[in-house]
């Protein structure tokens, strides 16, 4: 049974991926694998600093999702300014995926908010105190604009970590002084 009200038109979301390495390719693959009765997603732009990574990512995604990948060469951006060029291909409400090193994350996030884009970003989100504070500040702005922000944290699915968290909450491990 579908989780979506099929009496309404399905959303057509366009996606850009910023960071076309292994995790960027994987995250784009995940987004394009959403069943069509939930959403019709299309990859329309990519950015990376490496031509080799971009080429490999594009070929893999095109092979797996032929009809959902529409990224001609002029929408595959190489260089440190590629993130903005890729996002400029999206419309308000579309989705950008960030899988670059976290040192650049707040700059990318700030631009996505300015453009009105929803964001999925991989962990880690920040490398230091300055960028952590900046990301928290930017997240408040994203909330005000009703933008959706998701973070890839695979440990929430770990039964061992759930058990550890439960033991900490129940006081079984005593007072935690450092973590």
Strand and helix layout:
Layout: E1 12-18, H1 22-32, E2 40-48, H2 51-64, E3 76-78, H3 82-87, E4 95-98, H4 105-115, E5 118-122, H5 129-144, E6 149-152, H6 159-169
Parallel strand pairs: 1-2, 1-4, 2-3, 4-5, 5-6
Brief synopsis:
By secondary structure, the protein is an alpha/beta fold. It is built from 6 helices and 6 strands, in the order βαβαβαβαβαβα. The chain has helices at residues 22-32, 51-64, 82-87, 105-115, 129-144, 159-169; strands at 12-18, 40-48, 76-78, 95-98, 118-122, 149-152.
Count of DSSP H/I helices: 6
Secondary structure class reads alpha/beta
- Assembly level: single chain
Strand content: 15-25%
Number of strands: 6
Low-pLDDT stretches are: none
Written account of the structure:
The chain is built from six helices and six strands. It has helices at residues 22-32, 51-64, 82-87, 105-115, 129-144, 159-169; strands at residues 12-18, 40-48, 76-78, 95-98, 118-122, 149-152. It is globular, with a radius of gyration of 18 Å.
Descriptors:
6 helices, alpha/beta, globular
């Amino acid at each position: 049974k579908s989780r979506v009200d099929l009496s309404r038109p399905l959303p057509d979301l366009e996606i850009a991926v910023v960071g076309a390495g292994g995790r960027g390719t994987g995250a784009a693959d995940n987004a394009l694998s959403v069943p069509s009765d939930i959403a019709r997603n299309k990859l329309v732009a990519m950015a990376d600093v490496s031509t080799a990574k971009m080429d490999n990512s594009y070929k893999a995604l095109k092979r797996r999702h032929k009809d959902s990948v529409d990224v001609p060469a002029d929408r595959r951006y190489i260089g440190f300014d590629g993130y903005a060029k890729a996002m400029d291909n999206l419309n308000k409400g579309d989705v950008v995926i960030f899988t670059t090193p976290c040192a650049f994350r707040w700059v990318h996030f700030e631009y996505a908010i300015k453009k009105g884009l929803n964001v999925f970003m991989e962990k880690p989100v920040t490398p230091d105190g300055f960028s952590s504070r900046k990301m928290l500040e930017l997240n408040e702005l994203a909330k005000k604009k009703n933008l959706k922000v998701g973070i890839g944290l695979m440990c929430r699915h770990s039964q061992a970590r759930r058990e550890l968290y439960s033991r900490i909450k129940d006081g079984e491990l005593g007072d935690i002084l450092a973590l």
